[in-house]
Specification:
Distance between the termini: 41 Å
Strand content: under 5%
Number of strands: 0
Largest sheet: none
Mean pLDDT: 88
Length: 543
């Protein structure tokens, strides 16, 4: 049933008291426009909301409430011109905010109004949330205006955010100012890090380094960052990295962090600004799609991801995000269609086959998933991947076989993986836990999980498996610390918290047991949810 949204006319009237006197003669019209805008906003009809707020703003330009809502609506609708207009109004009305300052800096930067850009950066230094950006933004103004980059050294204890975000920005600034030698030195220290922002930096740095004459180093950067199969396309050398690319990377990186930290509105604003500064940047398109999805606007993000070409270093990433968004929203047929089309375009791509298998598995089509994973592990292209990567492909096949009810072949597949890759912690844990669940060869199962834990003690899944193995063996004093550690790291994971609750119950800690089972309920479904409800009501009556 659709939500019923009631809006109180008196409450709206109170909200609109800030309207100037010239608008009071049209209070009923204003209330109607505001109600229309808010309803449209709640219903994610941002085009309608934006038009309503614009009408209100024209009749009431001195209303802080209207300027604020116009700003938010314009950001969601990608109308940056209107967002800038609203931001300027907010600056005049109430001094603005960190959000308006980051946008107004970008506006001044794009128009090469360096003095205004400096003013916006100074304003940001006084606005709290994004104050750490100020020295980085000022360095971009210097480079863009033809001066040398001067980025102060970072003190992680004094300013941890600045230290964190200046690490890659220093290299972007070096590239944009033509100091390729310094940039190459810095890149060698950072290039092995697995972070997404480091990958973006490697890709962005390849072209200017090739332009400086060091094609070998540029090729090495691209190979390190390339996610697709085969060799990356030839690098097109450029003389210098554009300031737009470097500045956009800063906004994009902060956007991704905000979305991951569940601050989607600010994340979308930063992503929109990054897109505005560098509209053709594929890395930014991926970040915008993430932010749009987090703000419940998935289709706009999906459209942007669909425009990323198979020749782009971000094509596989874009494809993965498209499928993840669709699967999470239950749109499995669309996900399968997109994955199948990608497989037709790139029939030799292992990465595409992997994503195609996952799409079918998410849809419950396990026979198709098994078939795709079999073709994946038997493909001639697997000679290009590492033994560990091939083991992970085989583990996907084993998991799909297990889920389809073919335990014997799943077990055989995992045993074969361990012959080739005896220290694969994931496989050791999967096979060991499966043996525990099936009640067979418990001593061997515990030994396998213990080996996995020794290799990866930070994994909540492996920690839980070892704790559960000790629990089943009656070693409660050894089991409980491990289960508590796993639950602390895993949040409301249903299986892990249920195990912890069972251990508490066995130790006579009834209240703690019910608390853990309640935590498990938060993410449980179906039979598991019913079982947890019974445990909460009646405890464990039998094992």
């Amino acid at each position: 049933m659709a939500r019923i949204i009631r809006i109180c006319k008196l409450a709206l009237s109170a909200l609109l008291l800030a309207l100037p006197s010239v608008a009071w003669a049209k209070t009923d019209d204003a209330i109607g426009d505001y109600a229309s805008a808010r309803l449209a906003e709640i219903s994610y009809r941002d085009d309608v909301a934006l038009k309503s707020y614009l009408r209100l703003y024209r009749s009431a330009p001195e209303s802080e409430i209207v300027a604020d809502r116009l700003f938010a609506s314009a950001v969601r609708s990608a109308d940056i011109v209107t967002a800038v207009r609203a931001a300027r109004a907010m600056e005049l009305l109430n001094g603005g905010s960190a959000e308006t300052a980051v946008l107004l800096f970008a506006d001044a930067f794009r128009s090469k109004s360096w003095t205004l850009a400096e003013v916006a950066a100074d304003e940001l230094s006084r606005s709290g949330n994004f104050a750490f950006m100020t020295p980085i933004l000022k360095s971009w103004v210097r480079v863009a205006s033809g001066k040398s980059a001067e980025l102060p050294e970072a003190d992680p204890e004094e300013n941890p955010f600045y230290a964190y975000y200046s690490s890659d920005q220093r290299i972007y600034l070096q590239m944009a100012s033509g100091d390729v030698a310094a940039a190459k030195y810095s890149l060698r220290a950072i290039s092995t890090q697995p972070d997404e922002y480091v990958r973006d930096l490697l890709i962005a740095s390849a072209a200017p380094i090739a332009g400086s004459g060091d094609k070998l180093f540029a090729d090495a950067l691209m190979r390190s960052a390339w996610q697709s199969d085969g060799l990356p396309p030839p690098i097109k050398p450029i003389s210098r990295l554009s300031v737009e690319t470097g500045l956009s990377a800063l906004y994009r990186r902060i956007s991704v962090a905000l979305v991951e930290q569940d601050v989607p509105e600010q994340g979308l604003l930063l992503a929109r600004i990054a897109e505005w500064i560098a509209p053709q940047d594929d890395a930014t398109r991926v970040a915008v799609a993430k932010a749009l999805n987090a703000n419940n606007l998935p289709d706009a993000g999906l459209s942007g991801l669909a425009n990323i070409s198979p020749s782009s270093a971000y094509w596989i990433s874009a494809l993965e995000h498209r499928l993840s968004i669709l699967i999470a929203r239950g749109r499995h047929n669309e996900a399968i269609s997109i994955a199948s089309d990608a497989a037709r375009k790139e029939p030799g791509s292992l990465a595409v086959k992997l994503l195609q298998g996952r799409a079918n598995e998410a849809n419950g089509d396990l026979p198709s998933a098994v078939s795709i994973y079999r073709s994946l592990v038997s493909s001639a292209e697997t000679s290009r991947v590492s033994p560990r990567q091939l083991s992970n492909y085989r583990l996907l096949l084993a998991s799909a076989l297990d889920r389809s009810g073919d335990w014997q072949n799943a077990k055989a597949e995992m045993e074969n993986i361990l012959v080739l890759d005896p220290n694969n912690a994931q496989v050791l844990n999967y096979l060991g836990y499966s043996l525990l669940e099936k009640g067979t060869d418990q001593a061997r199962a515990t030994a396998m999980i213990k080996r996995a834990y020794d290799m990866n003690p930070e994994s909540s899944a492996i920690t839980d498996s070892l704790g559960w193995a000790y629990f089943l063996d009656g070693k409660l004093s050894q089991a409980l610390p491990l289960l508590e550690k796993a639950a602390k790291a895993a949040g409301n994971d249903a299986a892990i918290n249920e195990h912890l609750g069972d251990a508490y119950w066995a130790l006579g800690r009834r209240r703690d047991a019910r608390y853990a089972w309640n935590s498990a309920k938060q993410s449980a479904e179906g039979d598991v949810l019913a079982r947890l409800a019974s445990k909460i009501d009646y405890g464990i009556t039998q094992r």
